[in-house]
Every structure is written in structure tokens, then in C-alpha cells.
Design goal:
Elements: H1 4-11, E1 18-21, H2 26-31, H3 38-41, H4 44-61, E2 64-67, H5 73-84, E3 90-93, H6 95-99, H7 102-105, H8 123-134, E4 140-141, H9 150-154, H10 166-175, H11 180-195
Parallel strand pairs: 1-2, 2-3, 3-4
Helix pairs in contact: 4-5
Amino acid sequence: FESDDSLRQAAAHYRANWVGFHAESPDILRQNQNRGTHHERRPPEAESTAVQLALDLARDFGIHPHICHLSTAGGFRAIVAARQQGFPATCEVTPHHLFFDLKMLSTHPRPGLFQCNPPIRSRQDRLVLLDAFRRGEIDFLATDHAPHSLEENENGISGIPHLDTFGAFVFWLREQGVSWKTIARAVSESPGKVLSRFTPNPYGRIEEGFVGSLTILNEKRPTTVRRQGLRTR
């Protein structure tokens, strides 16, 4: 959407629906489009402002708002405030926004490989979201899988692949003190509830009548992620 008004006009058609928002303010992106780096062109306030707008639109039109790939502490605080007022709002985080931060990438020899939208954020943002995930306040762990080639990433196309590494990543979450119960809710049960709204058979639980879509994780068998084991582009 090119403006907040055009988004508002579109949102009016989705009353009482569950709607996912890629929350970045087009106005703030335009204001910063000539800055030097990718993350400077997409600053944190672009997300936090858009999250608040999404929540306001959801109230106006009776929409259930879901904030996709949340990356900032400011955006999370807006969601918490809405929940404290009794307003239902859900959100997700990606592995790359929980694992990487700008301080890490400042010394990486190929930081362009980590270009994504929204961009990798500060260490403070990362730790706030990780702590929120640990407490069970983040609803989904979502890949935002973008299977571009290395050459495409080097040429400025944004996106990080994660389908190959998603299972291994949850073990890192365990090392960070996240319980298996919290992980299972965020990677299976909660997404399954949403997916079940749009399919004839429900997902997300091991019960009669549910789709038998299962992933088994072996806690006793270490895995090393290697290039030759990845099937993504």
C-alpha cells in the first residue's frame, strides 16, 4: 500500500476476518529511502508505527490482527498494550530475528547475505523478542522462508531461507531456556489453529480427526547444518 488511507480503504472489506499484516509504514520508508544502508532505510519506527496502525484498523473494522515477522521491541510493546486492553492480537517472530543482530553482522565478511524485510535489528530488540518468546507471549515461530540464490542475495534481493534449518533451530531455543511446551505451541498448535480456519480438516494436535502432519525431533542426536545438506536455492 502506498499510503495509510489506501490501507484503510482495503481493510474495510475484511470486517470480522483474521488478517496478517507485514507492518512497515510506506511513509517512513519513503522518508528514509536515500539513507546509506538497508537497515537505515527501514528503521525500527517504520515497524512500530505500522503495528499501531494495524491495531487501530483492527479495532475500527472488527478484524483479528496478526503481525507477521515482528522485529522490534517497539512493535511488541504496542501489541502488549492492546492485549492489556482486552484486544485480541497475535504475532510471530522468525529464527533470524531471534538469532542475529546488527552487532553480530558488523563483523561478518558477507553481511549482504542477511538482508531481509524487516531487517535484522539491534541486540536490544533481539533480546526483548527472545525473552517474550521464552515467556510464551509470541504466538508463532515463522520461517518467512525466502529461497533466493546466493547470487541474488549478493545483488541486493532480500530474504533468508529457513525451511531446512527450522528443526535444528528449535534446539537452539531450548538452549536459551525455552520450554518444549512453549516451542510446541508456537511451531504447531497455534499455527494449526489458524490453518484449520481455512481447511476442512484441523491441524496442530495429535488427536483423532486431525491431519497427521508430524515432525519428530531427536534431542539425543546432534545435527550440524552444512551447505551440502541444504535443499533450498
